[in-house]
Amino acid sequence: MPDAPPLGGLLSREPVIVATGVDVLAEAVERQAAAVRRVAWRPPPPGAEHDLAAVLGDPGHAEADRRAVTRMLSARPHLVDVRPAREVLGLEPGAFLHAGPPIAWDRASGPLRGALVGAMLLEGLADTPEQAENALAKGAADLEPCHGRGAVGPMAGVVGPSMWMLVVRDPVHGGTACCSLNEGLGKVLRYGAYGPEVIERLRWMGAVLGPLLRDAVRRHGPLDLVALMAQALQMGDELHNRNRAASALLLRELAPDLVAADAPREHVAEALRFVGGNEHFFLNAGMAAAKCAADAARGVPGSGLVVAMARNGTDFGVQVSGTGDRWFTGPAGVPDGLYLGSYGPADANPDIGDSAITETAGMGGFALAAAPAIVRFVGGRVPEAIAATRRMYEITMAEHPALRIPLLDFRGTPAGIDVTRVVRTGVLPVIDTGIAGRRAGVGQVGAGLVAPPPNVFADALRALARR
C-alpha cells in the first residue's frame, strides 16, 4: 500500500475554516482569501445547562416527545364547513379575537389597532373610526387571542362575530380549528387598513362569498388538506408566503360545487373571480390545518414540543406541549426582507400574525427549499433557502411523512420544534412573513424573514424543567 499523505493530506489541500460566534474572526480569515463556512451557533444562555439537564435527564422525556410529535404528524385535517364566527366560535357582540399572545389596547400595535377599528365599523359598534378608537380605548370590546378559541388569524388576526370562518376537522384525533377567509392583498383588514373599500369587501364576503363557500364545501364533502398541501409543495409552494399552487388546487376542487350553487350567476362569477385572483386564498385553510395538527400534540406532560408560535405586533409568544396554555413571550422583531415601493424598515411594524403556525407544523420557512421562487418575494438567494431548511432539521424532532421536498430528494420537511434543541444549539426557527406598516391603515409594506426572540425558548425550557 502507498504511504498515507502526512497529516491525512491536510497540508496539501485548501483549508476550510468553520467559524461560529464572533463575526470578526470569520471576517479576518475571509480577508486572507480563505474559504470560511459560518455556522449559526451560540452557547446556551447562563443557567440553561441546569434546565437542559433536568429535562433531558427525565426518563420519560424522550417518550413524551415521541408521543407528542407522532400525534402532530398523524393528524389528517379536512376542510368540512364554512360558518360565521358567532356560530362556530360562540363570539358575542363586542368580543373580538386577535393574533398572538394576549394583549390590551394600550400596548396594541398600529396594525392591530387599525384592524380592531375596522372590525368595530363592520360589526356596527361605531359609525366612524374616531368613535371606534375612543370606544376601544375605554374598554368597550373584549379582546382574546385566536389560539384561546381554537382559531388562528393571519397578521392582525382580528375576528368579529359576523366574519365567516373556514372550519377544519381532524378525524384522527377529533380536533377542530378555524380561520377567517382571506381578503386578498393590498389594503385589507388583516394589515390594519379600515377604509370604506375594506369594509365594503368584508360585507360582500359575509353576504355573498361566505354562504357560497359554505354550500360548496358541504356539497363537496370533507376535503383532505394534507393531500392538497403535499401536492402544492411539489409544485413550488412553501404554504406560508407562497400559496399559488395550493390556492389553484383548492379552487379546482370547489369550482364545480360553486357553479352548482342555487345562487345568482353574477354572485357565483364574483366568487370565482375573487378566489381565482387571490393567490393567498389557501393560506387561511393551511393555517387552520396546521393549528389542527399542532393542537393534537398539546398537553403531553414532559414534552418540549412547540405547539404554537404567534405574534401580535408587540410580543412574540410560544406555547409548548408540556406546559399547558401558558405563553412565553418576548419582543417581536422587525422582519428582514424586501419592501414595496418607497417603504423601508422605518415604516415596518414588528412581526405580527398567527401564520407562524405553518412553521410550527413543518411548513413555511421550514419548507423554503421546496419553493425557490419565494426568494424573489422575501429576499435572498436559492442556496440560502435550501440552507435554511437544512438548518431546521437541527432543531426538530421528525420529518413530515406527507410534506416532501423534491430538491432534497423528497425528504420530509423538518417538523416538530424542540425547545431543548433550540436552546442547546442556539439555532432559531426561521419564519417567512409579510411586513405590516407601522401606522394603522397603511397595509402591507413588504415581506421577509424573521426569527423569534431567543428568550422565549429558554423560558419555556425553564418552566418545563420546573414541572
From TrEMBL:
Q: Please give the superkingdom of this protein's source.
A: Bacteria
Which InterPro entries does the UniProt entry name for this protein?
AllG-like, OXTCase_su_AllG_h-dom
Tell me the Pfam families matching this sequence: AllG
Q: What protein name applies here? A: DUF1116 domain-containing protein
